[in-house]
Records
---
Amino acid sequence: MCGIVGYIGTKEAYPIIIKGLHRLEYRGYDSAGVALIGNKGALNVYKCKGKVSDLEKFTEQKDKSGNIGMGHTRWATHGEPNDINAHPHYSETKNLVLIHNGIIENYAAIKENLIKRGHTFESQTDTEVLVHFIEEIKEKEGMKLGRAVMAALQQVVGAYSIVVMDKNNPDELVAAKKGSPMVIGIGDNEFFIASDASPIVEYTKNVVYLEDEEVAIVSRGKELKIRTIRDKEITPYVQALEMELEAIEKGGYPHFMLKEIYEQPRSIKDSMRGRLNADKGIVQLGGIVDHEAKFLKAKRIIFIACGTSWHAGLVGEYLFEDLARIPVEVEYASEFRYRNPILYEDDIVIAISQSGETADTLAAIELAKSRGATIIGVCNVVGSSIARATHAGSYTHAGPEIGVASTKAFTAQVTVLTLMALHIAHKKGTITQSRYRQLLYELESIPKKVESVLKLNDQVKYLAGIFKDVRNFLYLGRGYSFPVALEGALKLKEISYIHAEGYPAAEMKHGPIALIDEEMPVVVIATKGANYEKVASNIQEVKARKGKLIAVVTEGDKEVKSVADYTIEIPETDECLVPLLSVIPLQLLSYHIAVMRGCNVDQPRNLAKSVTVE
Ligand code: G6P
């Protein structure tokens, strides 16, 4: 969602903040703003609707001096995206400015009281209420800024990461967080504050992740001070950042999404690195070793996730039931958290999240934890809130994913879930030794096979040219390919704004078949496996209604090829590993269609990479 950058030090703050905002733009981007205390002591706030580049144009002729400041990219929650609602927001006297990511749930009540006491507001945001509130406390109680922030946050309900700056104190920034992430970089006589490490990585590798309800007093030339909002002193835990700068740059690709699609041979390999040794018949997942006994006696696994991660959970369902014979449920975190779910102590809850910050997933974890379940995380972002909230877990190690439409994170999640399911199946004895070994070898060969699927790019691009102007798409799959059909449809919707539905192939005749005519492209995953003949019949049903068939088939296929209008041939693999290959042409198809339609692939409208509000 919103992106936050703050800087205090010896350098010019503006270029650092703008560069940081560009790096964070993928999180949310309907408006942007900066606040700087200039060399002459003036508090300069510039903000406007649009992208960070619009903000840069807006500030071209303005005073951008100063070595303390903050910047924000906004994804609207309260109040439409416009210049006024953009952050930073001023306090009543305009001495304080604040930027905020999250939602202040009780802002209306606070605002009402502030209005009664004579405050006036310019925007419709909850954020402006918070900065007025902080200032009121500061003035009334004669408190320092940090103390006033602590006192105000004690009365706030909701989620926030905030940075506050006082015009009259150009040597201090105050940051705080609850629910939304915040990291502080410690440089040489300088500090960086950001929603994630990407704006910081090129300056320092020493970072402190703030915990919920912590307030950081970031003062020029002094040590970082952290207290809880209830005034307990915290010793900052300085960690070394593992991220490399190249990982968050486009590296010659026109879009992050394409770069990330092409990174998959490597990211899948990285997900398996040190965990899989087919020759020795070993799968080891260090992060869950201590919980292995619980896995072995688990009566049920519940996956909780959102979006693409939920689709990975669906693949996980097939894997764990098929290989490890453990019953599985796959839950939307947003539904689960409000459903008073029944949980037992021998349930294993696996939370899947690329960002590790999704608010609904985090809340679902807390609920499951409070009911005694063991929570395992499958996260991509190291040190993220979800990674820290879980009892144990395995990182996906896909590297930073910047494109809003998730690609390499999905295949990395599926890879980790495959390793987990294989390991547990082997330990439980629900898989024969020979199939176990065969699957290990097959999994090891997946990165190479992904490489050969990527060579189909031109063919997929050609198909994109044919179908770029249609209004609807249908995606069908069965068994392991059903979640891939859902994921293919989601990718297309997200970035090209074409309506698309994913459906279990056999369910088509209970509804979507009514939509099929010569205008309707139908993508069917019809690779070799137990359901092949059944899917082939579904394909005939589409054909009979003149739908345009694009089939993803196994190399050498004849039957489906003879019926489909277009086929994409992917290498043969075991049925349970097909999702790792079949999803790739679907990612490419949506990518090329979106580019041809002139859509903003990396930053699709209304979407955010990391959804930190419920
Ligand atoms: C957002 C993103 C999706 C992502 C989903 C879940 O909607 O745009 O790409 O799949 O959130 O995010 P998570 O970080 O929890 O996997």
Note: The two ends are 11 Å apart (CA to CA).
---
Amino acid sequence: MSDAVTARRRVPRPENDPNLTYAPGTAARAELKARLVTMAAETVDIPIVIGGKEIRTGSTEPSVMPHKHGHVLGHFHKATPDLVRQAVEAALAARQEWASWSFEDRAAVFLRAAELLTTTWRSTIVAATMLGQSKTAYQAEIDAASELVDFWRYNAAFAQDLLSEQPDSSHAVWNQMEYRPLEGFVYAISPFNFTAIGGNLAGAPALMGNTVVWKPAGTAMLSAYYVMKLLETAGLPPGVINFVPGNPVEISDVLLDHPDLAGIHFTGSTAVFNSMWQRVGQNLGKYRGYPRLVGETGGKDFIVVHASADPQAVAVAAVRGAFEFQGQKCSAASRMYVPKSMWSDLRDRMVAMMKEIRVGDVRDFRNFMGAVIDKKAFDKISGYIDDAKKNAKVIQGGGCKGDEGYFIEPTLVQASDPAYRLMCEEIFGPVLSVYVYDDQKWAETLAIVDRTSPYALTGAVFARDRAAVREASTALKNAAGNFYINDKPTGAVVGQQPFGGARASGTNDKAGSKMNLVRWVSMRTIKETFAPPTDYTYPFMAEE
Ligand code: NAD
């Protein structure tokens, strides 16, 4: 196919995947419920996948249901350091061929994967996310189905825009920009809390022509494995993404010390990303180039309420923003600032909703919340709640019950000190801490919101008074990478609210945007002269 034809090809224009409601009586609900039954009855043997080959080491860990932790959904095989090295070799071996594919051929693999996910694979990946990560049907739907479909479809369109950006040319000169994949392999490390993130962390660099070693989170292995299988089914060639479950430290030791490490695509906690960055810094002399470091990390996301706000809108945003998926979203509302004049009204509205909320097994669709991910999270969150019982006021909730599933009630805490640790630290659970401020102290409160936490991921202001919105927007310019006005701070949609934060919340390369994709290419500028000069002298040198 000639270049002229290639240049005119366009990927289909993306549109956000519509969310299914799973309301009673719908076919989607019936299909999902049936899938939950069959998948809960299976015990999946999850292999390592290197160069398209499934490998089983026999050293395994179980994947369980967080809401019924005695129930084993599968076992995943853990990679040895030697297998991790083989995964790098497989990635490097696949690189040349994959990078030589036209962008359209690479994009077609992800577009096909998106099509499969939105249709025949939907119930499988949604059910895996419900069972393995304890998301309700709707939370699993907006993550594992819609968001991942959106990542794959929008990235193809964003990549196309990026590749079409070309420099100007002058007389008898043609300047071109070539978007080369990075030299080496990309290490993708995904968190437990979003199935879509794994598919994007590995998928975005691969779309741009890179090959990848993907280490999924140990507590989200079932859904990650199905994402890997889906990509293979969609035609992803062997070795382009290598699926390497196992001990994160052992795996990272091999990959971060490898001379061919070309980039890290990470989402997870700030401490882990910091440790990887430090290791890369120590290793700089070893690498072929400067590895690209892209990390989206922790948050301590705020809702700041002005006295002019609509209390019902605030209450709904706070309940959804803080407690959906048990507060285990990097964007979850976790600290709230409320004017004294509104507090008792807002508190009563929230408490009424929280009393209604059902927490339990996500296969019972009446539940609004499931369990937190594992025992470590359960212990950490209950520790914060114990602290609140002693050092603050627990307004509602506070119950923690871990015998069958890791259940924590939605919890509302009132702190009298805005620097109290529950107002500052990332808890990653269903705990919302509130500081009630004097109505007169709006400007001072904005300054407190800005300086209270090291993070700057998401935040929301609620106000009907436009001047207050403007003030908050200015005072909190650097306090959030995703800022919401009269809306909850969660639920960013690919293509609509590019996502990422600054300060200790990450490199802010905005997942699901052209800005992220630019990190996975290294540009080569090509100047071609059609009429090369034939005389080395310049006119100014001539005799007068
Ligand atoms: P985590 O940091 O514990 O784990 C993330 C990944 O890193 C996992 O694959 C894990 O196995 C691996 N890992 C853990 N320890 C490691 C080590 N020492 N060396 C190398 N890799 C290691 O995070 P998590 O609990 O899975 O996810 C929750 C965190 O992720 C929260 O802090 C949350 O705010 C953050 N998060 C951020 C975003 C964002 O876009 N900013 C999105 C989702 C989650």
Note: Residues 1-5 have pLDDT under 50 and may be disordered.
